[in-house]
């Protein structure tokens, strides 16, 4: 449903020098630098799937979403949404997609929210019944009633984002492009957006591509993940597989007995090898290392006969931890090696 093939985007930015003289020189000299926002990114999202498009700040996420939305022309490569080049037939494309750009509004700044919805429904040739049905659903989940009559410019960020999400979903788009859709929302409203998107997606089989720095958005909505770094795709797979890729695991062990935790830690370190073992309490040690070594079984075997184990915990790595390590790895000099 969504395809990006070797997309590149190079922005040309005029270099500005400081001060008035610098500004004048900037006007006449052609001192231009190139910013490679996308550097051959490729990925696809099958119909009905919900994919998170992730990466550090400046990785190229918004640029990709803009290319898919048809508001930006790639320098090379191509993308297709529902089999269509986003730039080829803008009108048909706009009816296929719903877009939320968290950092900018898609609504009419001076018009009441209600009026924006009415215009959008007309632009998309919606039947009156469908428009009313959707408005009822959005009112119910996002509580739009209190803001419906207010001009967009008077809304708080959170209120505006509620209206933006509703506007993007109003015409039952087949593809939903969400760029930071919960920015500025409190916890309850974030959950409301998750609920709305999930309800709509389940009912209509909508394909979703989401960028967010909020782990809760990703885990609540998405099943697959594409990670980009410096404009290139460095990981594509299911969310579950990504979680299994955690480079380290932790096992925490509580025990009773006379042995001091420093002594036990040193013994476990020697026994297992290639793991970090630290003291985490009066009678508690923490073992951290590669998933095949830092296992409850290995730790139990290492302390067997020395102490009585009173508790043992091996927490699953969180998505935040896995992403952090992936971002750190891709930021290292051998960039793109996980591609
Ligand atoms: N219009 C533009 N002109 C020049 N450079 C741009 C433009 N838009 C984006 N860039 C640059 O392209 C790169 C990718 O930007 P993009 O906004 O796609 O990143 P992002 O992954 O969405 O980041 P963030 O998480 O901070 O929103 C950045 O280096 C950015 O400065």
Strand and helix layout:
Layout: E1 2-14, H1 19-28, E2 32-45, E3 50-54, H2 61-69, E4 76-81, H3 90-96, E5 97-101, H4 113-123, H5 128-142, H6 157-169, E6 175-179, H7 187-204, E7 207-211, H8 215-221, E8 224-229, E9 232-238, H9 239-244, E10 249-256, H10 261-272, E11 276-281, E12 284-289, H11 296-303, E13 308-313, H12 319-331
Parallel strand pairs: 3-7, 3-8, 5-6, 6-7
Antiparallel strand pairs: 1-2, 1-4, 8-9, 10-12, 10-13, 11-12
Helix pairs in contact: 5-6, 5-7, 6-7, 10-11
The structure holds adenosine-5'-triphosphate.
Adenosine-5'-triphosphate (ATP) is lined by residues 11, 13, 35, 37, 55, 57-63.
| Mean pLDDT over the full residue set | 88
Quote the distance from N terminus to C terminus.
22 Å
Query: Which sequence of SSEs, written as H and E, runs from N to C?
Result: EHEEHEHEHHHEHEHEEHEHEEHEH
Percent helix, as a range, is: 25-40%
Describe this structure in words.
The chain is an alpha/beta fold and 339 residues long. The protein folds into two domains: 2-8 and 42-243, Rossmann fold; 249-313, Alpha-Beta Plaits (2-Layer Sandwich). The protein contains twelve helices and 13 strands. Strand 8 and strand 9 form a beta hairpin. Helix 5 runs antiparallel to helix 6, helix 5 runs antiparallel to helix 7 and helix 6 (157-169) packs parallel to helix 7. The two termini are 22 Å apart. The structure holds adenosine-5'-triphosphate (ATP). Adenosine-5'-triphosphate (ATP) binds at residues 11, 13, 35, 37, 55, 57-63. GO terms for molecular function: ATP binding. Residues 2-255 form the ABC transporter domain. It is a peripheral membrane protein. Its main location: membrane.
């Amino acid at each position: 449903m969504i395809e990006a093939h070797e997309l590149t985007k190079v922005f040309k930015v005029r270099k500005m020098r400081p001060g008035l003289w610098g500004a004048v020189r900037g006007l006449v000299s052609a001192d231009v630098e190139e910013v490679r926002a996308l550097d051959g990114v490729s990925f696809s999202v099958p119909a009905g799937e919900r994919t998170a498009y992730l990466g550090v700040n400046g990785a190229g996420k918004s640029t990709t979403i803009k290319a898919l939305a048809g508001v930006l022309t790639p320098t090379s490569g191509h993308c297709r949404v529902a089999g269509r080049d986003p730039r080829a037939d803008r009108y048909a494309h706009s009816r296929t997609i719903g877009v939320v750009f968290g950092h900018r509004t898609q609504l009419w700044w001076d018009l009441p929210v209600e009026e924006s919805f009415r215009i959008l429904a007309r632009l998309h040739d919606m039947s009156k019944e469908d428009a009313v049905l959707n408005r009822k659903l959005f009112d119910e989940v996002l509580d739009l009633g209190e803001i419906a009559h207010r001009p967009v410019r008077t809304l708080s960020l959170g209120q505006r984002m509620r209206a933006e999400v509703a506007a993007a979903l109003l015409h039952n788009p087949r593809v939903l492009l969400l760029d930071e859709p919960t920015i500025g929302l409190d916890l309850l409203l974030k959950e409301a957006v998750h609920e709305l998107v999930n309800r709509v997606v389940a009912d209509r089989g909508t394909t979703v591509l989401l960028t967010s720095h909020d782990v809760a958005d990703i885990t609540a909505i998405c099943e697959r993940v594409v990670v980009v770094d410096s404009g290139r795709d460095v990981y594509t797979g299911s969310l579950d597989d990504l979680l299994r890729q955690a480079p380290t695991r932790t096992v925490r062990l509580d025990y009773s007995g006379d042995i001091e935790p420093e002594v036990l830690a040193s013994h476990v370190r020697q026994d297992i090898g290639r793991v970090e073992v630290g003291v985490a309490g009066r009678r508690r040690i923490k073992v951290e290392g590669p998933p095949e070594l830092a296992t409850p079984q290995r730790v139990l075997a290492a302390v067997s006969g020395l102490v009585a184990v009173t508790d043992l915990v091996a927490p699953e790595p969180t998505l935040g931890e896995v992403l952090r390590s992936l971002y750190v790895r891709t930021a290292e000099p051998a960039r793109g090696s996980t591609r």
